[in-house]
Amino acid sequence: MIDENRIKENLESFSFPRLSGTDDERKAFNLAFKKLEKLNFNPLSQEFEFSTFYARIYPKIVVLSGFALLLMLFLNFITIIIPISSILILLLWGFLFTITRKPERIKIGKKLNSANLYIKLDLIPKNEKSEINKIDCNGEKDILFFCHLDSKGQWFSILVRIRVARAWVFSSLTIIIIIVCKNYIFMSYSLLLYIIGAFPMVINLISTIFILLNATNNKSKGAIDNASGIACVLELLNYYSNPEFRLNHYNLWFVFTGAEECGTMGIRNFCYKLEHINKRESIIFNFDAIAKNLYLFPSKNMSGNIKSIYNAFLNNNKGLEIKRNPKKIYFGSHSDGYYLKKNKFEGIGIGDLESCKYLHSIRDTVDKVDSSLLKNLCEMIIDNLIVFDSQT
After folding, report:
1. Over the stretch 10-30, which tens digit does the pLDDT of each residue have?
2. Domain annotation for the chain: domains and CATH numbers
3. pTM, rounded to two decimals
4. Burial of 32 (0-12, 13-18, 19+ CB in 10 A)
5. How far apart are CA 294 and CA 380, in angstroms?
């Protein structure tokens, strides 16, 4: 059964700095591997190499070149400089857009190593004592539990970075509108528009400086993000390690991804192993940064299966208050769950929006996580999946 003490023990065990691609991340991988072996499993791993270019360098190049282009257009530099510089910047953006469509394959920049760890519990019919007559692979349905092993520290918290990114985007749009008005519509008011445009230009400059100054470090213990998710997935695996508790109609996957904090490199590589998955009939649960509150992030267009589980969670009998995500757009935020949904997987992300002020900082510590909440969450998932499975 679900054990809060074991959850707390795992939470504390994985609460140490473990930046993507470092020996510390490998330490977390080895620790998880040993815990799976203690449950008498033979866990599988997927080693991969990744570049830090996409997550750490690419955004800074785009932002700096974008600011330079806006400044030139706003100040009306020498006519010949503007078209030449604009063409060069647009060519740079075109090149960057092309290579970042598959960022897991980028070879530019510093290259590091990481790994995914996973277990698949194949469906075994309850009336069978062996794996004979298993359902044909093409007709299988799967439930996948995801979490990520790595943590990340940065100068600025994720909440600050999201706000800075929004300020940069909205100030850029404002400047573009002012440039159009100044040069083509209200030319007689160009001086006034220069004065008005100075304000969003300054905001854009400050935002650019913030983004350029932000640096990644290995100082965050990552208790919330994402030792909490690791503890949940380990506890669910511990429960389902007993064949008697398996589901009748779904295979179960337990996936611990690496390098999530460096451009979601782990899940991008792991998706190649999921090409045979029936996306419409399968369900993902991504555990990422749970502290003292519970927010659910369902698929944008929920299928009948997801809607059924989502409503069951909202009306749970564990006394859990489920807070709904007020945002329709995951602007400035990326996670394994977000990447999976973009790739047409259906499911529910689980996290805590109110913990953002601690993430990616030295304040992301064990005392910020409610282990009893994690226990009730695991029990809620188990209870509702039993009901859902029986109705399938």
Report:
1. 999 999 999 999 999 999 999
2. 4-52+110-155+217-390 (3.40.630.10), 56-102+158-214 (no CATH)
3. 0.90
4. buried
5. 12
